[in-house]
Every structure is written in structure tokens, then in C-alpha cells.
């Protein structure tokens, strides 16, 4: 039986409410983000596609 670590981390983007599994997080500068858009600081002012999340830089 395998027991994968199901660790979730909050996206480091301040306005973002998403949590992402540590394994799938996009890491940038030692922080974990839920998606590229957050990791880049929303250069296109696009939000992440997650329902209920209002972050868009
Ligand atoms: Zn989000
Ligand atoms: Zn995010
Ligand atoms: Zn964000």
C-alpha cells in the first residue's frame, strides 16, 4: 500500500484563495503558486480559472 503525501499549500498569491497540492504547485522564488498566472504575478491581469477565486493581479 502506498501512502502518498497529500499535502496542500495555499497559493502564495495574496488575493488567491486556492490551495494546491504541493506536488502540483508551481514554485517560483521558493513560493508555491496554484498556476503560472499567479506565479508570474498576473502579468496579463488574468485570473486563475478556479471558481470562487477573485485574484487577477
Ligand atoms: Zn486562484
Ligand atoms: Zn493562485
Ligand atoms: Zn493569483
Descriptive report:
- A two-stranded antiparallel ribbon has the order 1-2. It has a two-stranded antiparallel sheet with strand order 3-4.
- The protein has one helix spanning 36-39; strands at residues 8-10, 19-21, 26-28, 31-33.
- The longest helix has 4 residues, at 36-39.
- It is elongated.
- With 57 residues, the chain is mainly beta.
- A hairpin with a 2-residue loop joins strand 3 and strand 4.
- The model has no long low-confidence stretch (mean pLDDT 87).
- The protein contains one helix and four strands; from the N terminus they run E-E-E-E-H.
- One zinc ion is lined by residues 11, 13, 16, 18, 33-35, 38, 48, 55.
Largest sheet: 2 strands, antiparallel
Number of strands: 4
Count of helices? 1
**Helix/strand order:** EEEEH
Number of domains: 1
* Known CATH architecture: Roll
Mean pLDDT: 87
Question: Poorly predicted ranges (pLDDT <50, ≥5 residues)?
Answer: none
**Secondary structural class:** mainly beta
Provide the list of bound ligands, each named once. Answer: zinc ion
Shape: elongated
Radius of gyration: 12 Å
The portion of residues forming beta strands comes to: 15-25%
Question: Can you list the strand order of the major beta sheet?
Answer: 1-2
**What fold name stands as the CATH topology?**
Ribosomal Protein L24e, Chain: T
Distance between the termini: 42 Å
Please estimate the helix content. Answer: under 10%
Please give the CATH class: Mainly Beta
